[in-house]
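Thread: Newbie trying to understand structure tokens

Hi all, I'm a second-year student working on a class project, and my supervisor (Dr. K.) asked me to get a predicted structure for one chain before our next meeting. I've only ever worked with sequences, so writing a 3D structure as a token string is new to me. If someone could post the tokens and maybe explain what I'm looking at, I'd be very grateful. Here's the chain:
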Amino acid sequence: MMDAGTAIEHTAVCQLGGRAFGPSFMKKVYTPMPIAHEDRRKRETMDKQSKRMIKELKPGEKVESYFSVAYKKPVTEYRYGNMFEFRAADRTGQITIKYWGDDDKGSVQKLHESFDRDDVVSISGDVSDYRGQVEISVSKKNGGSIAVLAEDKYEISSLIPTIDGIEELNTRLFTIVLQVEEPHMRELLQSFFQEPAFMKEFSACPASIQLHSAAFGGLLHHTLNVTETCIHLARQHPELDKDLVITGALLHDIGKVRSFKTTTHINQTHEGNLLGHIAIGDEELVSHISKIDGFPNDLRMKLRHVLLSHHGKKEWGSPVDPMMPEALVVHEADDTDAKIDYMISRRRDAQTEDDWIWDHRLARLVYLK
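---
Reply by user tm_fold:
Sure, no problem. This is what the structure looks like when written as tokens:
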């Protein structure tokens, strides 16, 4: 089942198939402690519940692990009593968990109400297969349990992937900004990326929910990939307005900062669902340009066009098709990075001993070796 956020995210969703911000990105720095503290550190590590990743689970196994709650469904009746199900996630994927209760609806309802979306729950149950999909069954008969975990009992890094080297990526971005010679566009870029609050959010934001660069720092990683590809293409085609290409590439996904929220999993904000990151990005762009004295109107329209057309086609979510070579460059670089990252993730995360998997979004086989 695909939620609304996944359904409307990046261009790749359409092509491949036809933070309200959460906690800021935090880089933990580990400092060696005196030997006298070794036992304490070991005890703290043991206090954390052990983690089995979703992609490791196989039907027929027992599982004791923890997952974040993406959403849950109401309590319903079944043949032997009352049950409910919910969708859970970690950094390797999502899985359906079903609780099979008895005819005491009150106790089942109480358990259902004991946790909510974004909570992290400890699960004990059986891994099973239902219509070709791996899921977890929890019941009194199999000794199963569901319980909310306190924040100090789990590792957030096991629930959401994190891009390495955020500080280095920021440095690369600032270096690219300084390559822009046109004064108005450079001031525009600086109005975004030299603003500490925005940069903190931008550096933590994912680029998508599931499809590509779905991680803390994913948007920064994706933006740099797109921009550096655009710079290479601008060198090959000197007829292009290089400053326009670079500025458009760096800003093409700025609307995602307000579109995504990250708590114990990645999801979209109401604003992101209702408006979409392209419309939000255009709003942000116009707002920042309005604060720059003497910003040329022709340049303003060109930059808006680059952002509004970066999904490539109206049926892929763009209000307009690319009508300038600079806009086309940004679209193609954006689309290519999203598709490549997606295919790499499919090969990396495949759960099979076969040499091939069928991907329904790509509508083709993917070779895994």
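A couple of things are worth pointing out once you decode it. The first helix runs from residue 4 to 7. Residues 1-47 have pLDDT under 50 and may be disordered. Feel free to ask follow-ups in this thread.
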